[in-house]
Amino acid sequence: MLSEQALLLLWGGSAVGTMTFAMGRDRNPLLWLFAALAAGPLAPLLLLALPPVCRDGPPLDREAMELCDACLEPVRRDRRQCRHCGVVA
Ligand SMILES: [Zn+2]
């Protein structure tokens, strides 16, 4: 049986892990920290189930992004080719 403290530690650890994981996947770490605190060990699974590119990325990036005509994923304006589907704009 897990003690209450061990469970809290596990919960907190998984929340911090999810936050780090979210940062690696260009997602809002704070949002995912709270999501992980609410959903516990389910949060990283949720993060995995989501597509790797975040539409609410950093505002700095959003300026330079536009949606690909073919796959509707955000693509950098200065790139001629979509990095998601390979279609050349
Ligand atoms: Zn595309």
Task: Give an account of the 3D structure.
The chain has 89 residues and is mainly alpha-helical. Helix 1 packs antiparallel against helix 2 (29-39) and helix 2 packs across helix 3. Strands 1-2 form a two-stranded antiparallel ribbon. A hairpin with a 6-residue loop joins strand 1 (65-67) and strand 2. It has 4 helices and 2 strands; from the N terminus they run H-H-H-H-E-E. The chain has helices at 4-24, 29-39, 42-49, 59-63, and strands spanning 65-67, 74-76. Helix content is 51%, strand content 7%. It has 2 domains: 1-52; 54-89, no CATH class. It is elongated and about 55 Å long. The mean pLDDT is 83. Bound molecules: zinc ion (ZN). Zinc ion binds next to loops.
Please tell me how large the radius of gyration is: 17 Å
* Helix content range: 40-55%
How far from one another are the termini? 58 Å
Bound molecules: zinc ion
Secondary structure: elements and pairs:
Elements: H1 4-24, H2 29-39, H3 42-49, H4 59-63, E1 65-67, E2 74-76
Bound molecules: zinc ion.
Tags for this entry?
mainly alpha; two-stranded antiparallel ribbon; 4 helices; 89 residues; single chain; binds zinc ion
Q: Could you give a quick summary of the protein structure above?
A:
The protein has 89 residues and is mainly α.
